[in-house]
Amino acid sequence: MPNVQRSLELDPAIHAVEVKITAQIHDEAKVRRALEHSGVEPEHREIYFFDTRDLALFDAGVVLRARKIIDGADDSTVKLRPVDPTTLAGAWKQTEGFEVELDAVGDNMICSAKLSSDQRREEIDKVAAGEREIRKLFSEAQEQLILEHAPTDVSWPDLAILGPVQVRKWKVDPKGFGEEVVAEEWTLPDGSDLIELSIKTEPERAKEVSDAFIAYLEENGFTTEGEQQTKTRATRSYFTGGEGFA
Fold first, then answer.
1. What is the CA radius of gyration of the chain?
2. pLDDT grade for 193, boundaries at 50, 70 and 90
3. CATH (domain of 95)
């Protein structure tokens, strides 16, 4: 289960800590029933990633993503994961929209940084259809971030479109817990899926909220132990000829 004890000594640049739990296969039906009974309608998303076929960007800790959000604002994101916040240029930490977070996935603590940019409707569709360059989805600031962290031998024409992944996202306030829980169901084209439950909190409250989250799940019969898959890694593997969600 996540251990965020170390979050008490975080870099000041970290804005939030997100604790993530992958629902075990035997719990997935129970999670879906709980979500159906919550009365909350899910937000529907379609997600694309961009990388070389041998995942050169991913291996270098750079993630390029575009999200279509039904009835919401589409966006593109450059994420650095993992990243040491102490090595980030001070200018980035002052850039509007630049965020540094700590993800607790199982026993792993992974720091990430991201910069997002809104996209007009149909811009992502045009890229997916090959009618627009991938590069057009990213702002000048995002391109500069990529330039500073991506391998020098990877250029825009080298990138492939990896997607789409269909996503349903719920934000619920479970009775008796007191914190907002986010549930995401990611479904690949082969029908395999993954459900992730997460909470996000301020660094100074991370251990307290994480312990309460784990206790709440276990009290309600959910397994918090077991293999923790990461959505991004499994998705990239699937679209480059490997296996998807287990």
1. 18
2. very high
3. 2.40.320.10
The answer to whether residue 61 is domain-embedded is yes
Residue 245 lies in a domain: no
For residues 103 and 7, give the distance between their C-alpha atoms in angstroms, rounded to a whole number. 10
Q: Tell whether 184 is covered by a domain.
A: yes
* Amino acid letter, residue 175: K
pTM here is 0.91
| Residue 82 domain flag | yes
Under 8 Å between Cβ of 49 and 163: yes
Q: Quote the CA–CA distance of 107 and 129 in Å, as a whole number.
A: 39
Length of the chain: 246
Contacts of 85 (CB under 8 A, 6+ apart): 11, 13, 14, 93, 100, 111, 113
* Cβ 159 vs Cβ 52: under 8 Å: yes
Terminus-to-terminus CA distance in the chain, angstroms?
19
Q: What are the pLDDT digits (tens) for 77-110?
A: 999 999 998 888 889 988 999 999 999 876 778 9
DSSP label at residue 23: P
Q: What is the pLDDT of residue 233?
A: 83
Mean pLDDT, all residues of the chain: 91
How many domains, the chain? 1
pLDDT of residue 143: 98
The boundaries of the domain holding residue 193 are 5-239
Q: Which helix (H) or strand (E) is 167 found in, with range?
A: strand 160-172
Other Cβ atoms closer than 10 A to 188: 19
